[in-house]
What does this fold into?
Amino acid sequence: MRFVGSFLFPESASNLAPNVDHIYLALLALSTAITILVLVVALFFCIRYRRGSKADRTPPKGTPMRIEITWTLIPLLIFLGLFFWAAEEFFAMSRPPADATEIYVVGKQWMWKIQHPDGRREINELHIPVGRPVKLVMTSEDVIHDFFVPDFRTKQDVVPGRYTTEWFTPTKPGKYHIFCSQYCGTDHSRMVGWVYVMEPAEHARWLQRQPAPDSLVAQGERAFHSRGCSGCHVQSSAIHAPLLDGIFGKPVPLKDGSLVIADEQYLRDSILLPNKQIAAGYEPLMPTFQGQISEEELNAIIAYLKSLGDQPRQEGER
Amino acid sequence: MTTATLQAAPQPRPLTKPTYLADGKTIRSWLLTTDHKRIAILYMISITLFFFIGGAAATMMRLELLTPQGDLVTSETYNKLFTIHGVVMVWFFLIPSIPTVLGNFLVPLMIGARDVAFPKLNLASWYLFMAGGAFAVFSIITGGVDTGWTFYTPYSSTYANGHVIAMATGIFIAGFGSIATGLNFIVTIHKMRAPGLTWFRLPMFIWTIYTTSLILVLATPVLAITLTLMALERAFGVGIFNPAMGGDPLLFQHLFWFYSHPAVYIMILPGMGVVSELIPCFARKQMFGYRFVAYATVAIGVFGFLVWGHHMFVSSQSIYAGMIFSILSFAVSVPSAIKVFNWTATLYKGSIRFQTPMLYALGFVGLFTIGGLTGLFLACLAVDVHVHDTYFVIAHFHYIMVGGMVMGYLGGLHFWWPKITGRLYPERLAKLSAVTIFLGFNLTFFPQFILGYLGMPRRYPVYAPEFQVLNVFSTAGASILAVGYVLPLAYLLWSLRWGRVAGPNPWQATGLEWTTSSPPPTDNFEKTPIVTEGPYAYDAQAAEAELEAGHA
It folds into this structure.
C-alpha cells in the first residue's frame, strides 16, 4: 500500500499537502464512481441489446423529463459542494499567516535567486527549518516563471513587474524539488532546484557555516542612503517629499482622490514608475530608477521600508 | 412473346447526373471548384497532411522523453517541436477537422440544400487556410518557433527566438478562413433548410456545427487582435504586454484564453455531433432526450465563453476572479455530463451493431467521460494549484481532443466514407485499427495523469529520473497509437479503388444525406426533399424483426 502510495502521490511535506490530497482523493473517488457507472451501464446495454439478442425492446413510454432533470441536478449539486470545498482551501493557500518568515525570490532565465531576511543569499537552493511558515515574495527579471514545489502541493507564477506570494509550512525534513513550471525559454527544464527542510538545530548549524552578511534590512538601509533616497524622504530635508516611516501596509491618499494600500507593489512602482501614482499633496519630483536598480536591491529597500516603525527617525539613527 | 418482352424490357437506366467526383477530372476543376463536397475533399487532404506534420513532431518528443537526460535533441529543438506540435495540431488539424471536412460535406446534404450559402467564400476559406498553413510551414522549415502554442508574453514578444511573427501571421490568416467558414454555416443553416426541416428536426450534427460556427465567428477575431498586439510589441516595441515597457503580461493571457477556451469547444462540439449521429444509427434507436442534448450543445457554447480565467488560477489573477471562473467551469461540465448520460441511455432497448463507426463512438464516450471528469480536477481551485502546468493538464486535454475529437473525426470519416467515396472500407481492418487506437491512446495518456500529480511539469525535455518509468509507458503507447493512425490512411486509400461499392445507404441510416446516391451528384438531390418527421426515426423492434425474417 505504501508502495502504491509513493507511486501515485508525491511526498506530503507541507501543511497544504494533506488538504489538497484529500480533495484530490474525493475527486478521484467521484470520477471513478461515475466512470464505472457509465461503463457498466453502457456495457450492460451493449450486451443485452446487441443485435439478435432476445430482449424486450418495446419502446419506453413517457417523456424523459424527470430523468433529465435528475441527472442534471445531481451532478450540479455535487459540483457545487466540490467548488466550495476547494475554494475554501484555495483561499487559505492565498493567505499567508502574519508570522511567516519573508523570503524574497527573484526568477531569471534560468535560475532562482533567493534572499533571506538575515541577508544570506542562495541560488537554486532554499534552506529552511521545519515547522516554521515561510512566505515567498517573488518577482522576475525577465519573463514569467513559476515556483513549483510538488511535495508542498503549491505553485505560483512569478511575474515580471509585480510581486506574487506563495506560502507553506514545511512539515517534514528532507530534500524537495523546485521546478519552474511556466515555460520560460530554452533551459526552462533546467530551471530547477531543491528545498532543504531541516530540523531547527541542523538549520542553525547550517546557518553558522554560512558567511553572515548584513541583514536584508541593513542592506536596504545602506541602499536607501547610497541611492540618495534619504536626500529627500527625511524630515530635515528641504524638499517636500513623503516620509516613509511606517508607511508599509497603510492607506495612501493619491492626488487623483483615490486611496491605495502601500504594499510591495506600490513601493516598487513608486521607485520605478514614480509618475504612475502621485501621493496627494506632493509634486511629481521623484526621479525614476527604472533600469538602474536590480531586483535584489529593490527587495532590500522594500524590506527596509517595511521594518520602519511609525516614529520618524532621527537623522543618522540606525 | 413473354420471353421477348422480358428481354426487351430492361428498364433504360435513368439518365443520372455524374457524381460530384466525376464532374471534372482536371486539377483546375478541383482548385477552382465551388462545390462544398469537393472543398471538403480539399480540406481532408490538407488537414491529413498537417496531422502527420504535427504527429511527426509528437513522435520526436515522445522519443526524447524516453530518457530523462535530454539526449536525443537539444532543449531548443524540443521547445520548437512542442510548439510545432501544438500550433499545427490545434489550428491546422483540430479546429478545421470536423467542421471543414465533414461539416462542409454534410451540412448542405443534411439540410437538403444544393450547396452552402456562399460557395465562392467557401473556396476562399480554403485558400486562406492554406495561405496560413504556408506561413506556418515556412516558419517551421526556416528555423522554427519556440514560444509554445500559447505565445505567452513577454517571452514571445521580447525574448523568444525564431520566426514568431511568421507563425502568428499564419494563424492570423487561417483564422479568417475559420471566420468565413463559420459565417457560411450559420447563414446556410438559417436560410437553406429544406421545407419541413424545422430546428428540432435537425440532426444533432447540425446543432453542433451551428454552435461551433457561432464560436468561430465570435471568438476568432479576439485571437487575431491578440496576436497582432503581440506582433506589434515584438516588431515595433509598442509596450502592451511587457512590463518593462509599461505593459501587462496578464492582459495577454486574458485575451488569449478568451479565444482559446471557446476554441476547446470548437474542437469538441463537432465530435459530439458526430457521435450523436452514430449512436442512434448503430443502436437503431431514437436519440434519448434529443431536445436536452440540443440545449446542452448551445449551453456549452455559451458557458464556454465565460470560463477562460480557469487557465489563470496561479497567474496572479485576483483570487476572487479565480473563484468565479472556478464555479462557472463546474457549471460548464454539467451539459457535458448530460450528453454522456443521454448517449448511454440511447443504447437502452436498442438493437446494437458494432461496426467500426460504433466502436469509435463508444470509445469517444468512454474517453470523453474521463477527459471531462479530469477537467473537474482542474476546475477545483486548490487541486489546480498543484496540477496546473503539469502532465495532468496534458493528459486531460488529450483525452478531450484526441480521445474525443480525433475519435469522433475517425468515426465520422468511416461512417460517411461510403457517402463521400461510394466505397466501403474493409471492416475487419478498420475494427482492428479502432481498437489499436483506443488501447494505444490509453497507454500513452493515462500514465500522464499520474506523472502530473507526481509533479512533472510540462515542456520539460530534461526531467527528474523518478519520472522515467511512466514516460516509457507513455512512449510505448504512442508507438501503438501511431500504428493505429497509419492503418486507416492505408486502407482508406486502398478502398478508393478496391473497396466494395456501397450503395446509397449502407447503414440503413436516416438523414437526408442518405437519400441521395453515393457519391452524391454535384447538385446533391434530384429534387428538393421535403421533411415530414424528426431525426433518428429508427426502430429497434423493426430491425430485429427484419433480422429474424432474414434468418427464416
User: Anything to note?
Assistant: The domain at 1-46+96-212 of chain A is CATH 2.60.40.420 (Immunoglobulin-like). The longest helix of chain A spans residues 16-48. The longest strand of chain A covers residues 101-108. The mean pLDDT of chain A is 89.
